[in-house]
Specification:
alpha+beta, 8 helices, 23% helix
């Protein structure tokens, strides 16, 4: 593990964790790091927990093997049903983000790229939940991890996570598949109701990790998502998925639970924090309200900057800057990192937030290339 950005006087201190070996060994190492940070396994309904393990074994064997590694790190029987051995932290859903896919045909050098801003509260979990912070409690997003996994078999991956070591917010794999999550319907978002207990299938922050572990192309990702079970903790997310072959789509679920694949053909694809299947035309969007977090305005800006033009990597970065969260005391969010995925080079390049007035780190480049 290496310290790659920030310091004790900065908002973020970023670590890069590189793990290799079997998925069992990778899971054990992730759990040991989570324990160092204070994580412990949560009680689970035994019937549900047993079904969860069975689902992972059938549909996501990499995660199932990592859970066995977690059991070894904890000195537990991997077949016990009383404790959930994954969910190496929990993220309250509420991030307002922006993303823009530029296909190879619209790219100056022929590389397909996705740019994304990850916007989140610069606050403690207690403050986000409406209570006073605990003594010495750090802001939730102040200790992000970049995690590279190099398994003995399968796809190499590099992901960025805010505080969930077995999930991620951004990820790319050695096949050039890139995935990122965004809140899907900020205007109508509500806090979770009751306890946030694990269910069978993919939790919100597990879904990107599932795709970069198991899929190489957009078409594979579509089939994997259509065949999977999903759940969230009260606030729906949607996901932009792009591959090295120039294809991309947004995956989202409607308010009635229906599943939607949103594509725009061989052109740029923008996504912010409203449901695209309800507002598919970027030229015909409603006006923002006090609850929409400028989602429609941000998408208009990204669309106008990308329509009908050829964009360089710097043009994409400039577009992200145009919709970056303002350093304003009245704005509850900050852009905590800004990432450009290059699906041809299998890289993600990221700048991390250091605090108001301190701007951002230099751009750091991380690879997910073949071993």
């Amino acid at each position: 593990m290496t310290h790659v950005a920030g310091g004790k006087d900065d908002f973020q201190l970023v670590r890069h964790l590189t793990l290799s070996g079997s998925h069992f060994e990778i899971g054990r190492a992730l759990t040991e790091e989570a324990r160092r940070l204070g994580w412990s396994p949560a009680p689970a309904d035994p019937t549900v927990n047993r079904a969860r393990r069975t689902w992972f074994e059938r549909h996501w064997p990499q995660h199932h093997a990592r859970m066995d590694g977690a059991a070894a790190a904890l000195g537990l029987d991997p077949d016990q049903d009383e404790l959930a051995l994954d969910g190496l932290n929990f993220i309250p859903e509420g991030s307002g983000c922006s993303a823009l896919w530029i296909p190879p045909s619209a790219s100056a050098d022929g590389h397909g790229r996705v740019g994304r801003n990850y916007d989140f509260f610069p606050s403690t979990a207690s403050e986000i939940m409406g209570t006073a912070p605990r003594p010495n409690e750090l802001p939730m997003a102040s200790r992000p991890y970049v995690i590279t996994t190099v398994p003995d078999q399968g796809l190499t991956t590099t992901v960025i996570t805010m505080n969930d070591l077995d999930g991620c917010m951004d990820g790319i794999n050695s096949a050039g598949l890139a995935v990122m999550l965004l809140i899907a319907d900020f205007e109508n978002a509500t806090p979770p109701e009751g306890a946030t207990t694990p269910q069978v299938g993919l939790a919100s922050v597990q879904l990107p990790r599932f795709l970069v572990d198991t899929c190489e192309t957009v078409e594979q990702a579509k089939q994997a998502l259509l065949g999977a079970k999903h759940y969230d903790y009260g606030t729906a997310l949607h996901y932009l998925v792009a591959d090295a072959h120039g294809q991309a789509f947004v995956w989202e679920r409607g308010r009635d639970g229906s599943e939607h694949i949103v594509e725009l053909g061989d052109g740029p694809l923008c996504v912010t924090n409203h449901l695209l299947h309800r507002h598919p035309d970027p030229m015909n969007l409603p006006e923002d309200t006090e609850h929409s977090l400028q989602s429609y305005g941000r998408l208009r800006t990204l669309h106008e900057r990308s329509k009908g033009v050829t964009m360089s990597a710097q043009d994409l970065r400039d577009s992200l800057g145009a919709v970056q969260a303002a350093e304003d005391p009245q704005v509850p969010f900050r852009t905590l990192w800004s990432t450009v995925f290059d699906t041809a080079d299998r890289t993600l390049s990221t700048r991390f937030y250091l605090g108001d007035g301190r701007r951002y780190t230099e751009e750091l480049v991380f690879h997910a290339s073949e071993r």
